[in-house]
Amino acid sequence: xxxxxxxDANQLLKEDKNPLAESIKILKTLQKDEILxxxxxxxxxxxxxxxxxxxxEVYVEEKDGFVFSY
Length: 70
Hints:
Structural class: alpha+beta
Radius of gyration: 11 Å
Order of helices and strands: EHHEHEE
Helix content: 25-40%
Distance between the termini: 11 Å
Shape: globular
Strand content: 25-35%
Strand order of the largest sheet: 1-2-4-3
Largest sheet: 4 strands, mixed
Number of strands: 4
């Protein structure tokens, strides 16, 4: 699969933006073989749960104090 876009959840929160809303906007534009990478310094459980509910596959990797959700 191919990564199309990365989102930094920490940056979005600093800008008073909603990471879930921003992620959903992007997910709606992705093709079946494209990936959204969400980067955070926390495990974004509410986002992960919402993505799974909507039928998206989710993979989580924790590395160097960051959480990468695909």
